[in-house]
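The data are quoted verbatim for reference:
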Amino acid sequence: MMRSCFAALLFTGMTMCPAVAQTTPPPAASAPANEPPPAPYEQQLLRLSEILGALAYLRELCGDQKESSELREQMAALIDVEASTAARKARFAGAYNKGFRGFEQTYRSCTPNAELVVTRYLGEGLSIAREVASRYGGG
């Protein structure tokens, strides 16, 4: 289904292989490159990523596949713009997946409570987006 396809979309370009015993240790020179310091708003964007994941699951569950798909596209765009390193991409994708999987484990059908969560998360996501844009937008 689309949910399993999205994980592949988020990790495009990243290899995800099962663990295999290594016959030779990796060279010492293969240490990860220095990552630049995170943006001051990165924690807010990680929370927004988690909200997008939760909303994508809940909107699909409640019958709005179009909005669910749009939320996935917004997350992919957020990763493209904000995640400049593989480690950051993994953090943003992990936050999205945490939100998605958390509600996937809780809700199997659309309930009034699931719809209430959607309303609250839409408000929280909008608030985060506005705060980040007004504080750091530079426009």
Notes: The two ends are 40 Å apart (CA to CA).
